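Hello, quick one for you while I still have it in my head. I'm working through a protein record and want to make sense of it properly. Would you mind checking whether the tokens look sensible for this chain? I owe you a coffee for this, so here goes:
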Amino acid sequence: MRSLPNSQRGVVLFLALIFLVAMTLAGVALVRSVDTGNIIAGNVAFKKSALMSSDRGVQTAYQWLSANQPSLTSDSPGNGYFSSVPDNGGSPGSTLAVWNDRNWIAESAWTQAVTLSSDGAGNTTQYVIQRMCKLASVAFDPTGGNGQICIKRTIADGNPQNAGGSEGGGGGGYTGAYMVYYRVTTRVKGPRNAVSITQSTVTVKP
């Protein structure tokens, strides 16, 4: 049998090393892909947990509104309550000409917020309540005679939930009474720097 020329000796070993390097690189890429997928899945889970915790802030704010209806004309910064919204419709004390996300992303928007204790998932919830009215410390007047303008809904009679407009299914005629809307903005901070900011509008049953 003829032996291979010297120039062809070691080719098989060389090819095997190339394949070994290629397989090693493929394995490293697979591991990195799995790790990245796990990190993304974990971040999504933390974000959803933070979003779910925002309901706690909304419920607490609604309970405070219900218990303090006689005094809702005036600000109560210690309870995170403000009887009006800025001209730009943003956070309390905002000086921006036009509303944008910085109203609520900035830490300055939360200096007078109510902070709840951390929940079992490590989320910390804060909330701010704003009466959807133009003027602070001015009572709501349906006629607008005192210059106060509020976002409101009409109460319908015959409806056990006192809902009006599109929410008054099954109700009778309108009573002429109104309910003012309140905006509850919550911020939840969770593990891995997960942050969720939500806004809900509520009315308080008289």
User: Anything to note?
Assistant: Helices lie at 11-67, 102-105.
